[in-house]
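Write out the bound-state structure for histidyl-adenosine monophosphate.
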Amino acid sequence: MNRLIHRPKVKNMKFQAPKGTRDFYPEDMAARNWIMEIWRRVSLRNGFEEYDGPIFELLDLYKAKSGEGIVSELFHFEDRGGRELAIRPEMTPTLARMIAARANSLSRPIKWFSLPRLCRAERPQRGRLREFFQWNIDVVGIDDVVSDAECILVAIDFFREVGLTPDDVVMKVNSRSLLSSLLAAQGFEKQRHEEIFAVLDKRDKLSWEAFVETVEKVSRDGEEKTTLLSIGQAAGPEGLAGLTEMAKENAAAEAELDRLRQLLALLTSMGVGEYCRFDMGVVRGLAYYTGVVFEAFGKGEFQRAICGGGRYGRLLEAVGGPPMSGIGFGTSDVVILTLLAELNRLPAEATKARRVDLFLIDADPSLFDEVLALAARLRRIGLAAEFSYRRQALGKQLKQASACSASRAVIVGSEYTQRQAVSVKDLASGEQVEIGVDRFLANPHGWPWSDSD
Ligand code: HAM
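---
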């Protein structure tokens, strides 16, 4: 017997959603749609086109490209043909694969966005789950500092849209190529850089003592340790000034510093400078980043990374495409909704699962057919028109109308039989007006309908 279709032995077993996943009951679904709609709106107004890919890929795509962190968290399986596959833990390798396949026919810069459902076998915790939706923004086919700035601008455009201010979040900006050139200038061999990146990226994730200990482990002597600690701590304008000293007379490091300064200046010109801060403590975990890297963090209670990205200069080549550079970022529904809920900034509309514009009421059960006919006509012209399944007293129907947050009730009563009119009641103010059915249908939003309507 196929082991996948065996019957469980226990009768009437209770099942729960798997660890780290969510059931989306209507109000949760409303919140998910609310954030997805904002992501789509922000992407489109910034000039990005939507794409998607398969929810699983060949395991090798991630093994080769994403780096240790993500590979250790993969949900992977073998198909019946013995192929090793993995559920997508991130979108960037898929994006690179898709663009590489059509690199010659796509006009550049390629500005694409996506809203994939992703899975990572992480330990679930506040703001981190095993299944989540991630908004991805990427600009591919150009290595220009303006595209670095534009990506960061889009992330901040979204923060503003959901009411996150510079008091709530900080976008930390750094550059791996700057770090590399500084390390090289200080005599650290190239083959040691990756290991040092991983250590410096831990600065804010470990206690200071633990961080110093980790730095010590990758240092060959006290001098190296001092250099790494001073590079790793550099942040803000003072930090940048310190590095300028360190980069002096090293053309590569000076050029990288120049580019970073240009980026910060562009962000200021774009009006988002107050969100951004240079910080060497952000190096990012993914293996494919080569240039600018950035990560946004909550500033209050929720100090976790809420959005992260960077420039990947060689990823397209690594998946068989032409040399093409790209930059992008990801952020998820889980972190953003957690942050907004903790700040008490989730608007009521975000969890409103049902929209009812009008609730139709029969003042007499004999008029129920008229209620149904009117509801059907209103729905055809785009209004969310509801009615009660049960025939009950007018007061009870009115209560039902308020319970489903309808803005108005339309009462079909004797005025309907006498003069083809209905009474429309505003449920917030209690005010009621009578209006002819034809006039009402011609302009159902015209409340309170003056004579000139
Ligand atoms: P990442 O730093 O792995 O980068 O993830 C980016 C964002 O996705 C995180 O800042 C967080 O908001 C969200 N995220 C990651 N893991 C989880 C999780 N387990 N639960 C909830 N949210 C999570 C990337 O994925 C890159 N591929 C982003 C990118 C796009 N780089 C260039 N283009």
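---
The CA atoms of residues 122 and 280 lie 26 Å apart.
The first strand starts at residue 49 and ends at 50.
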